[in-house]
Design brief:
Its cofactor is Zn(2+). This is Homocysteine S-methyltransferase family protein. Belongs to the vitamin-B12 dependent methionine synthase family. InterPro entries: HCY_dom (IPR003726), HCY_dom_sf (IPR036589), Met_Synthase/Corrinoid (IPR050554). Keywords: Cobalt, Metal-binding, Methyltransferase, S-adenosyl-L-methionine, Transferase, Zinc. The protein is of the alpha/beta class. The chain has one domain: Alpha-Beta Barrel (TIM Barrel), CATH 3.20.20. The chain contains 13 helices and 8 strands. The chain has an 8-stranded parallel β-sheet with strand order 1-8-7-6-5-4-3-2. Helix 5 packs across helix 7, helix 7 crosses helix 8 and helix 8 crosses helix 9. The radius of gyration is 19 Å and the shape is globular. The chain starts with 8 loop residues before the first helix and ends in a 12-residue tail after the last helix. The model has no long low-confidence stretch (mean pLDDT 93). The chain binds zinc ion.
């Protein structure tokens, strides 16, 4: 579908860098936002004079994406810290900026602003960082899985029931991708995929948005392994997952979240063995403790990710839940000596 579109200038630049070295992705937003200790008035912006112009009767505490509009400086500063820690690619804070996910907060009408501003605030942070050190950096527009699955019924008494359809998802993701591109995203990143049918809707929407934009953007696709047997929630192995998304010719395919680096390793090795494109891995900082917090320190995470690099499994690495700018700095230092994985050539 996007085969005949010319690649964006950023696409060419990213390919050039990826041939030379392992690229660094940023770390978690959630942990950094939590550390700010924001209350309801901070989330709505009533306390800071950036009150959201979109009205909702729902409480907004916990709606992290809304901070793009109501605490833009705080969000920009987090992105900036990741950029200065060594991230080449920084993700927008838009994991839940679809009409489907924002319905929980009564803010479906805010998604165009959330996505466009979400990309702009990353661009501002990256431009600040680049003004200091001259290094190019790239905005990855993040598309999350939504809180509904198209493959599995949430009602045990009605296995045929679906809380969301493919078409609902495709329409929601098209709005999101369009907003991210309008705000200047260099990359579209579909992440934390637990349901391949949701991911297929997101892929379709991203390709449609690129078509409307008239340029091909690099597409990053990242699944998550949710059980010990090494399958996604919709039941696929890493190999099956690759074959379900390969038609999109993603710039990277990979894994994030759910597991720490150690438990991710065999699944990543499997994916690296079958995928004829770049591989991206951004695990959590280990597994959460009994309080849901992550204890794994920057050096521990970095050592395990350096093992991925030493074995030639990765082209892009970063961190998911529980990682901080210190983790990203340690990861960037630890992989600097290793060459990027060579993409195998299959027919
Ligand atoms: Zn995560």
């Amino acid at each position: 579908m996007n085969g005949h579109l010319p690649p964006s200038p950023a696409f060419a630049a990213l390919n050039w860098i990826a041939a030379e070295r392992i690229l660094i992705l940023d770390g978690a937003m959630g942990t950094q936002i939590q550390a700010l200790g924001l209350d309801e008035d901070d989330f709505t912006g009533r306390a800071s004079g950036h009150a959201c112009r979109h009205h909702s009767d729902h409480p907004q505490k916990g709606n992290n994406d809304l901070l793009i509009l109501t605490q833009p400086q705080a969000v920009e500063d987090i992105h900036y810290r990741y950029a200065m820690a060594g991230a080449d690619i920084v993700e927008t804070n838009t994991f839940s900026s679809t009409t489907i996910a924002q319905a929980d907060y009564g803010l479906q009408q805010a998604v165009a602003d959330l996505n466009a501003e979400g990309a702009r605030v990353v661009r501002r942070a990256l431009d600040r960082a680049t003004a200091e050190d001259g290094r190019p950096r790239f905005v990855a527009g993040a598309l999350g899985p939504t809180n509904r699955t198209a493959s599995i019924s949430p009602d045990v008494n009605n296995p045929g029931y679906r809380a969301v359809t493919f078409d609902d998802l495709r329409a929601a993701y098209l709005q999101q991708a369009t907003g991210l591109i309008a705000g200047g995203a260099d990359i579209l990143l579909i992440e934390t995929i637990f349901d391949t049918l949701n991911a297929k809707a997101a892929i379709f929407a991203c390709l449609q948005a690129m078509q409307a934009h008239g340029q091909a953007l690099p597409l990053m696709i990242s699944g998550t392994i949710t059980d010990a047997s090494g399958r996604t929630l919709s039941g696929q192995t890493p190999t099956a997952f690759w074959h379900s998304v390969r038609h999109a010719r993603p710039w990277t395919v990979g894994l994030n979240c759910a597991l720490g680096a150690a438990a991710m390793r065999p699944h990543l090795a499997e994916l690296s063995g079958v995928a004829d494109t770049l591989i991206c891995a951004y695990p959590n900082a280990g597994l959460p403790n009994a309080f849901g917090q992550y204890d794994e320190g920057p050096q521990d995470t970095a050592r395990q990710i350096a093992d991925f690099a030493r074995e030639g499994l990765v082209n892009v690495v970063g961190g998911c839940c529980g990682t901080t700018p210190e983790h990203i700095r340690a990861i960037a230092d630890a992989v600097a000596e290793f060459s990027p994985r060579k993409v195998p050539e299959y027919a």
